[in-house]
Design a protein that fits this description.
Helix content: 40-55%
Structural class: alpha+beta
Largest sheet: 3 strands, antiparallel
Strand content: 25-35%
Oligomer: single chain
């Protein structure tokens, strides 16, 4: 129960301190790959218009994810790139519950990366612009609370 309270209290602070959001290179690359442009379209501006429409649709979307973890069973589940927080939590719980009966959502997040670290019953999460940053934050927080070295149990990233 201790880590559930921590999730609620620390969520806003962790999100604020997570740093800048990840670069939007993925959605830009996806749009460029999905948009056909020939020389005539480039000359008329139709290609630019199509790319801008794709960027507006894909690069400004909020994408949700969640990580569920069972401290006793060690079961975990995650989700990413879903349209809403409820769907993200439901998917993470479904994956986790398939391997343990003590699963709870530890963190939900959007347009960033998250990681969960644990040592025995101490569970903490981290958020960051990259997987490495989220894992570092989770391990640091968990180790501070546990007084012993924690290990990353699960991670996930969403792309804007």
């Amino acid at each position: 129960m201790e880590w559930i309270l921590k999730r609620s209290v620390v969520a806003a602070l962790a999100w604020i301190s997570a740093g800048p959001l990840p670069a939007q290179a993925d959605c830009v690359s996806d749009c460029a790959a999905a948009t056909y442009c020939d020389s005539e379209m480039n000359a008329s501006g139709a290609c630019s218009a199509a790319l801008n429409t794709c960027y507006a649709r894909e690069c400004n979307r909020t994408r949700y994810g969640a990580i569920a973890y069972g401290a006793q069973s060690g079961a975990y589940g995650w989700s990413n790139d879903l349209d809403d927080a409820q769907a993200a939590e439901k998917a993470a719980m479904a994956h986790c519950s398939a391997h343990g009966d003590d699963c709870q959502v530890v963190v939900d997040f959007w347009n960033t990366c998250a990681a969960v670290a644990a040592y025995r019953s101490i569970v903490a999460y981290g958020l960051g612009a990259t997987r490495a940053r989220a894992e570092e934050q989770a391990v640091t927080s968990c180790t501070r609370d546990a007084g012993a070295p924690c290990e990353v149990q699960a991670w996930s990233c969403t792309k804007p």
